[in-house]
Write a structure and sequence with these properties.
- Helices cover 30% and strands 25% of the residues.
- It has 473 residues and is α/β, with parallel strands linked by helices.
- The strands form three sheets. The protein has a nine-stranded mixed β-sheet with strand order 13-12-11-10-14-8-15-18-17, with helices on both faces. A seven-stranded mixed β-sheet has the order 1-2-3-5-4-6-7, with helices on both faces. The protein has a two-stranded antiparallel ribbon with strand order 9-16.
- Helix 4 packs across helix 5 (135-141).
- The chain is elongated and about 80 Å long.
- The relative contact order is 0.09.
């Protein structure tokens, strides 16, 4: 039996004000305007429903209930097409789904901006997210609720339209629960298949992890790659270069060693004072996080950890944090550094045999004492493979990446150059060269544009294969 409002017990707080028609690129909709008791205005876009009770007091089969999207107002996503969230794309996909079926309602609920905190507060939360804080902690850091939305307006609008049993277009189980508590019977909940984007992947991953939203749709290109499968083609709307850029890594069998570094055009990663003159760039960071999500371990030198208080986690894309490997012969890394205290990923703290380390460390940290030779790239990679860490990303700093390059242990190097001339500072890639340019290191390359940056991928594995083939011939 479907529940409905008893107006004697629950007085209506929403008033129907007007009705018109709205031609859209998804076809013609009835547009019904409402005002609630707080003078907030809402609209419903209706297709194929004529204000008659859909259930007649009896449950309908799931396929007979109309499609309904209860959409929270989002100026940045709906009007400006922001990719920081998926709201605009969800809105468009819902209208398309209702139009394709020929029957349904989209309730556009105003006052829900930023999950109810308001536009300016949402922008303040965005500023915190720019610093690496997730969407949940950003709200609470501002002293605001994670989600303060009420769905009583939406429920009353549906009741006014004669709709009390629905198929809900939403990936949020809390929305279904709220509507059911308000008398709307949800016969089925359908997650709109809107693919994650690089710009909103971390935001969506947080909602799935911390706010009970549905998992990412099965079969999405990035999900397939992180599962070790290479799809034949990306889903519509997904970045077309994901398979092109990362397919080899998802398909690789056996050990793979990568390195990534971002430096100025004249080869520096920071100023003389150590200040990060080559500031982080979002597109390059997303690329770096994709590499992290596709490897078993990330290697970093102690100097880079001390300078940046590095995290080495996957935050901007969906994926699993790799094991973090800190090369620290003299135990320079401070015990209170985030990498040793955050518990976000297994961490190997590799120190010298005589290094002074705390008696106790966090549960996610394992200390291994190594002889000096074991810090050399060849020995180190052998040690990591003995730990089951076959896919390794060498991330920094410049000295560490250069050591692996000089040792000939890199299969691929991603070298991103930023349009800056630093003049002097902390060097990026440096190694002992040769007198003849003919002996310079080279390999087949690909180039990717990251905003104003250029990322050059050196495929040293292919160069070795070509050299081997030439010798055999």
């Amino acid at each position: 039996m479907a529940f409905s409002f008893d107006p004697l017990l629950v007085p209506s707080t929403v008033e129907r004000v007007t009705e018109t028609v709205l031609p859209t690129r998804h076809g013609l909709f009835r547009m019904v305007g409402y005002r609630d008791a707080e003078n907030t205005e809402h609209v419903a876009l209706v297709r194929g429903i004529d204000d008659v009770t859909t259930a007649a007091g009896e449950p309908l089969p799931a396929g007979s209930a109309p499609l309904v999207r209860v959409h929270s107002e989002c100026l940045t996503g709906d009007a400006f097409g922001s990719f920081r969230c998926d709201c605009g794309e969800q809105l468009d996909a819902a209208l398309a789904a209702i139009s394709d079926e020929g029957r349904g309602v989209l309730v556009y609920v105003r006052g829900h901006e930023g999950r109810g905190i308001g536009l300016l507060a949402k922008l303040k939360a965005y500023a915190l997210q720019d610093q690496g804080v997730d969407t949940v902690d950003a709200n609470t850091s501002l002293g605001l609720p994670v989600d303060s939305r009420s769905y009583h307006q939406a429920a009353e609008i549906l009741q006014d339209l004669g709709v009390d049993q629905i198929r809900l277009l939403s990936g949020n189980p809390a929305k279904q629960e709220a509507l059911e508590d308000l008398g709307i019977s949800v016969a089925e909940r359908l997650n709109l298949a809107v693919p994650d984007r690089a710009e909103n992947a971390a935001y969506l991953a947080t909602k799935r992890l911390r706010m009970r939203h549905d998992p990412a749709p099965a079969g999405d290109t990035w999900g397939e790659l992180t599962a070790g499968r290479v799809p034949a083609a990306p889903l519509v709307g997904e970045p077309e270069d994901l398979v092109h850029r990362y397919g080899y890594l998802a398909a690789a069998e056996g050990p793979v060693v990568l390195a990534q570094l971002r430096q100025s055009l004249d080869g520096f990663i920071a100023s003389r004072s150590g200040e990060g003159a080559v500031a982080d760039a979002r597109e390059d960071r997303i690329h770096l996080h994709r590499l992290r999500a596709l490897v078993d371990a990330v290697v970093i030198g102690a100097g880079a950890v001390v300078a940046d208080d590095s995290l080495l986690t996957v935050r901007d894309v969906p994926g699993t944090n790799p094991t973090r490997v800190v090369l620290d012969p003299t135990a320079r890394v401070r015990p209170e550094s985030r990498i040793l205290t955050d518990g976000a990923a297994p961490t190997l703290w590799l120190v010298g045999t005589d290094a002074q380390v705390p008696d106790e460390v966090a549960a996610h940290v394992r200390i291994l004492r190594l002889q000096p030779r074991q810090f050399e790239p060849v020995e180190l990679l052998g040690l990591l493979r003995g730990q089951g860490l076959d896919r390794v990303l060498v991330e920094g700093g410049g000295r560490t990446v250069s050591a692996f390059l000089a040792a000939g242990e890199l299969d691929r190097l991603y070298l991103t150059t930023a349009p800056l001339l630093v003049g002097d500072g902390v060097p990026g890639v440096r190694f002992e060269g040769s007198d003849a340019l003919a002996e310079a290191r080279t390999a087949p390359v690909r180039r990717f544009v990251f905003g104003q940056d250029i990322c050059t991928e050196f495929n040293f594995a292919a160069a070795r294969d070509q050299a081997g083939a030439a010798v055999r011939s």
